[in-house]
Amino acid sequence: MAAQKINEGLEHLAKAEKYLKTGFLKWKPDYDSAASEYGKAAVAFKNAKQFEQAKDACLREAVAHENNRKLYSLCRAYEQAGMMLKEMQKLPEAVQLIEKASMMYLENGTPDTAAMALERAGKLIENVDPEKAVQLYQQTANVFENEERLRQAVELLGKASRLLVRGRRFDEAALSIQKEKNIYKEIENYPTCYKKTIAQVLVHLHRNDYVAAERCVRESYSIPGFNGSEDCAALEQLLEGYDQQDQDQVSDVCNSPLFKYMDNDYAKLGLSLVVPGGGIKKKSPATPQAKPDGVTATAADEEEDEYSGGLC
């Protein structure tokens, strides 16, 4: 089967080369037909899992489309070449080609397709190069924002924010979350603004910036419905515990369902939050533990001492 598909691909390549040849009665290459044959060759090689040959066929198709001034088809060919590189696990090179395609989509006046290509590139590289993925997601968000598609823009900003938190790039994460919050406020999705305020506070506290965290809560009072919400009450309790270095109070808030069921990256921030100086934990009424050497008093000893003088 694979050999058959390889032969099929080679036949399409030969036809494409024939369409590009000129002669006495053919003065101009037939770029359109050649591009079609290169595309068919790429599909055949892909089906045979010959991804290197498939990628080369896609790039030849791109050149043919460029010579024929078919910019949209040129972009598609570059994008397909990038996907072949992805199959070969050459992710940085794949992203580079897909990013190139997306820029061409923008030049061709198809921003939606450009944004989808950028998002696809971000997903490809996310586990290998999170920093590049953040950049791609932010680029995608900018494209959507310019097109006034704010819901799509804020979704991509959210992906970037979570990656920044995961990489403990808290300064950048704080700015990214603020941008998310501004967009959610603009589209009047107020309950999500509350959640973003929680995320902001956790990030600022991990930056050891209590003042910025408190300011976030104070500024959020202007968001309709925030004051008096469970989110507001929990944040006030969290800030109070953090300010008083009460680790128990902070842990109680961060272990509440409101915090634990946030996006995983933010839930982890809550669970790992430690007050300055390690905090002062309240004594819990635990069962008596074994005493260190030299400490011999026990509850039984105390009871014995009480009656050591007899009952009278």
Automatic annotation (TrEMBL):
It comes from the Eukaryota. GO terms for cellular component: Golgi apparatus; SNARE complex; vacuolar membrane. Residues 281-312 are annotated as: Disordered. One of its GO terms (molecular function) is soluble NSF attachment protein activity. PANTHER family: GAMMA-SOLUBLE NSF ATTACHMENT PROTEIN, SOLUBLE NSF ATTACHMENT PROTEIN SNAP. Transmembrane segments: none annotated. Keywords: ER-Golgi transport, Golgi apparatus, Membrane, Protein transport, Transport. InterPro entries: NSF_attach (IPR000744), TPR-like_helical_dom_sf (IPR011990). One of its GO terms (biological process) is vesicle-mediated transport. It is found in: Golgi apparatus; Membrane. Residues 300-312 have a biased composition (Acidic residues). Gene3D superfamilies: Tetratricopeptide repeat domain. It holds the Pfam family SNAP. The keyword Phosphoprotein does not apply. This is Gamma-soluble NSF attachment protein. Required for vesicular transport between the endoplasmic reticulum and the Golgi apparatus. It comes from Aotus nancymaae (Ma's night monkey). Interacts with RAB11FIP5. Interacts with VTI1A. Its main location: Golgi. Belongs to the SNAP family.
